[in-house]
Amino acid sequence: MKIRTLMLGWEFPPFISGGLGTACLGLTRAMDRLGMPIIFVLPKAKPMRVSGGLIPGFYGEGATGFAFQNVQFRPVPAVLRPYSSAAQLASGTALSEEKDGAGLLDDDLESGGQGNYGADIYAEVARYARKVLALGLTEHFDLIHAHDWMTFPAGVALAQQSGKPLVIQVHSTEFDRSGEHVNQYVYDIERHAMHAAARIIAVSNYTRNIIISRYGVPAEKVEVVYNGVEHHNGSWSSSRQTWPAKTDKIVLFLGRITMQKGPEYFLHAARRVLEKIDNVKFIMAGDGDMLYRSIELAAQLGIGNRVLFTRFLRGDDVRKVYQMADLYVMPSVSEPFGIAPLEALQHDVPVLLSKQSGIAEAFRNALKVDFWDVQEMANKMIAVLRHPPLHQMLRTEGHREALKFRWEDSAARMNEIYHETLGVA
User: Fold this and answer.
1) Residues 340, 193: Cα–Cα separation, whole Å
2) Quick count: other Cβ atoms within 10 Å of Cβ 115?
3) Phi-psi region of 8 (alpha: psi -120 to 50; beta: other; left: phi over 0)
4) Under CATH, which number does the domain 237-402 receive?
5) What is the pLDDT of residue 151?
6) Where do the structural domains in the chain lie, given as residue ranges?
7) CATH fold of 5-228+406-422, please?
8) 175-200 b/e (C-beta count within 10 Å ≥ 16 → b)
9) Model confidence, pTM
């Protein structure tokens, strides 16, 4: 039996703000190749020309887009932006939305406290949920699959309205994003959805343990399905360019510059590296609410001239920065999985991982360190930069191991979970 899935997401390439969009693309493409019919509902944050299963291009390879055979996209008018600017936070303005009397959604959904989120996000979550409920009346589907907290209210409401089972996929929890200072409104949404769902997909055992211990969910309800990576005929390395000779080693941080990603630990470790090695530069590629604080910290540490902040990169620029790098560092305070290290290894860049990450539990051929241990982080950076045999071993073996993380395997397991949830063969 082919299960027709109504999938709820809040970002999809080319409009992305973090790793969720990349994960949704990889998983959805693999499910499409397996012949799994999907109706993918997305907020219409920007004008989106969607024709059947064709969406705008993402990887910047000159293609007009990706053609899907079994996936249909349904844009709905809502703007889900989880990572708000300082101006949005300061303004405190909420988007008004008329009430449509949907009994499953109440005013509280639009009036949660701000926390680390823009005031308008709560109105948009409710708006998205109402539009999904209306859309659900016109679509035929067997199961609902919702990605992360902003789509959870829509998923729960639609499950109640339709009687169809809800599967939620947790790519990140409020404890990952905010540490112990959680936004109670967001936590309550997550917890309610976890208990309402028929099955929960966690992207790692690291995340699964948080779901069980922090949200009181029965262990048997939570499955782990690791993320994968797009291999593009096996590797990006075949297109690795020969760059002009450079005198400096390059250490790369690529990700959102937020508390969760540990940018301050990266910078403190960078200062210790520069005390031992002169010819090193550090690239911090990304945007986030700690960007300007990180720029100031680099200056305070006396390394401002050795750290380059590129802001958010996409497409060819991402490939270029990987190709420049001698080492990729992911110093995350709490990382449910971590796709970027796999992408780095596809470009033959060795990686140093935070032990507080899902990828660290599943990956052997990488150096690992506690995010808070900046001295050990610096020591391991120095070891890779100073010792070519170690660098080469991490490149070769890490690249080989990265090839084992395939979206096709993730999609196949997802298909099994769908069938188990519905109790069909």
Assistant:
1) 28
2) 18
3) beta
4) 3.40.50.2000
5) 96
6) 5-228+406-422, 237-402
7) Rossmann fold (3.40.50)
8) bbbbeeebbebbbebbbebbeebbbb
9) 0.85
